[in-house]
Specification:
The protein has two helices and three strands, in the order H-E-E-E-H. It has 133 residues and is of the alpha+beta class. It has one domain. Strands 1-2-3 form a three-stranded antiparallel beta sheet, covered by helices on one side.
């Protein structure tokens, strides 16, 4: 008896390619969603680190004043924060905006200047992380 070892037929290859195209079409949006969510999680973590650094500067007396003091790292403010990292999530773009009140010992870090995304507020940060998901 002879064996026919000619490989796969064209129909079999087209079926496999069609199945792979369907899988990619279904999985790609989920993958993109998870990548964006991880970027926003990184933004929240960075905002918390900036907040801790600003509060440490207040405790060390590097940042003083009354009322809200806006920290713009590139302007040479007396802070250990040398630069404000770029925002990774696509909800807003730009750098973080940091406001410190040395008299109250509070600090808020916003995602971009003039936005309402206060990433040091747990509820707002959670909404930022889940925005349009």
């Amino acid at each position: 008896m002879k064996k026919n070892n000619n490989g796969f037929s064209l129909v079999e290859l087209i079926i496999v390619i069609a199945i792979m195209a369907v899988l990619v079409g279904v999985l790609a949006p989920q993958f993109i969603k998870y990548v964006e969510q991880s970027r926003r999680s990184r933004d929240i973590q960075t905002a918390q680190e900036l907040r801790e650094a600003a509060l440490a500067d207040v405790a060390d007396g590097k940042i003083t004043g009354t009322g809200n003091v806006s920290i713009t790292p590139s302007s040479g403010d007396p802070s250990t924060i040398s630069e404000s990292p770029t925002i990774a999530g696509n909800v807003v773009t730009g750098n973080f905006h940091i406001e410190v009140d040395p008299t109250k010992g509070t600090c808020h870090v916003y995602a971009g200047a003039g936005t309402t995304w206060d990433l040091t507020n747990d509820q707002v940060a959670s909404a930022y992380k889940q925005h349009n998901m």
